[in-house]
Design goal:
The structure is a homodimer. Chain A is built from 8 helices and 11 strands. By secondary structure, chain A is an alpha/beta fold. In chain A, strand 9 and strand 10 form a beta hairpin. In chain A, helix 1 crosses helix 5 and helix 2 runs parallel beside helix 4. The termini of chain A are far apart. At the A-B interface, strand 3, helix 2, helix 3, helix 4 and helix 5 of A face strand 3, helix 2, helix 3, helix 4 and helix 5 of B.
């Protein structure tokens, strides 16, 4: 099994190395990941700039190709140019921070997995919930992640399918409450900004929003992760609101035929 | 009616100015848009850097606030900090280039509108299909856009709803074939990259993909725009693949309880 591994925190992030150390137990792993941190870059891609690449050795045995682009660029470029053959699975992560709820929309980690899915490959995004009161343990999280990936894969993940996995923050000696399949919560952030002024008098703003885990419905990924479960959410990439199609298709539209003279 | 106008091509782009000239016929318009070109940035947001703002006068009568961030940042910041009150409508565009098919996923124009939608506002993204053989006419396109926006708004666009409008490239003296409500085509780009080498020997790649309008199903936005129609696609932002929820929820998962000792 050939696995493409990428992320959005960059090839030097601890999460991708921990994931690599576990994934090599499942198959051959090729790492193609952003050269720099690409958090919250969403599904951006690079079309007007060149994508520089370099082979890097991050740690003993852990080598990969760094791309100075976005996570979705890494997937496109890996599949189109860098891999010896089509991968059997694309894994993105482990992200430093949960990608549940509306964060799924902002996430570069998830975007990489979705890109792989619409290119026809099976893909899994993996993220670790970070909490101040729990020491961050990517090595431990990666073991859970590998167990989940192994089972998702063996249970018949198909090309074009994308699974979003989030891992709870586990206190020392603790364990996940279990595994829960849950839908994405679509509530927005409650945004806050700090307004400041530069020494030269220009206004600027820092995003100081705190994503409130409590503000959710109980059947969502946000609630399940909050409650200590590993979350599993199948994702798709059709943004059409099919429920509203009939409503808009039934309208009569009046468009003036020659607009430059219609005024 | 208070309208927030943004885009992804930047506040100095001709498309947003043309849109502004028409939108002022519908209500009060406040422009908050990226300082620089943000094409294909998807739904990225800025959380680790400050967002600098400046008041700019782009043309006579056309002033706005430039934000050195992403399109979605502009919407967040405008609503949270810059506008005197909640807008009645958010318009994003006119984008220089179609946002149909899988490009909807990559589009900063669409991301701004979707951000507005999940913040509870009615929103419309507007993009103009550019074709080499047809002179680009943002002023003419904006007249069509304004007619569409006026009708979408008056037909009861609700908070949280997002409509993606694409305008065909219209030859001089021509007109749109009509208006068609169509779903998003979800086929991927057929990617191609030009591989090159820097003078110092480092490999780099230019994305040279051409998005093929012919590779689509006939009931999609791509086909309708190709055939000269103004396209209307209602969008949503729940990435859950609900059809697969039962499949994954029915699985039994085995997760070793103490992973650091399970090896």
């Amino acid at each position: 099994m050939l696995i493409l591994l990428t992320n959005d925190d960059g090839i030097h992030a601890p999460g991708i190395e921990a994931m690599w150390r576990e994934l090599v137990k499942l198959g051959e792993v090729v790492v193609v990941a952003p050269e720099t941190v690409q958090s919250a870059t969403g599904h951006g891609i690079t079309i007007e700039q060149p994508l520089l690449t370099s082979k890097v050795t991050v740690a003993e045995g852990f080598t990969g190709i760094a791309v100075d682009g976005r996570p979705a660029d890494c997937v496109k470029l890996a599949i189109n140019q860098l891999l010896p053959r089509q991968p059997d699975l694309v894994v993105s992560g482990i992200n430093a921070g949960a990608n549940v709820g509306i964060n799924v929309i902002y996430s570069g980690t998830v975007a990489a997995a979705i890109e792989a899915a619409f290119l026809g490959l099976p893909s899994i995004a993996v993220s670790l919930f970070l909490r101040n009161e729990v020491p961050t343990d990517f090595a431990g999280a990666a073991i859970y992640a590998r167990q989940m990936i192994d089972q998702i894969q063996s249970q018949g993940l198909k090309g074009g399918q994308c699974i979003n996995v989030n891992l709870p923050a586990i206190p020392t000696g603790g364990k996940p409450a279990g595994v829960r399949t849950a839908r994405q919560c679509t509530r927005p952030w409650v945004d806050t900004y700090d307004k400041r002024v530069t020494p030269r008098g220009r206004e600027y703003f820092w995003n100081s929003s705190v994503y409130a885990l409590r503000e959710t419905e109980e059947d969502t990924d946000v609630a399940a992760l909050r409650d200590g479960y590993i979350t599993v959410t199948p994702l798709q990439f059709d943004l059409t609101e099919h429920k509203e199609m009939a409503q808009w298709a039934g309208r009569e539209w009046k468009v003036a035929a020659d607009p430059t003279h219609a005024e």
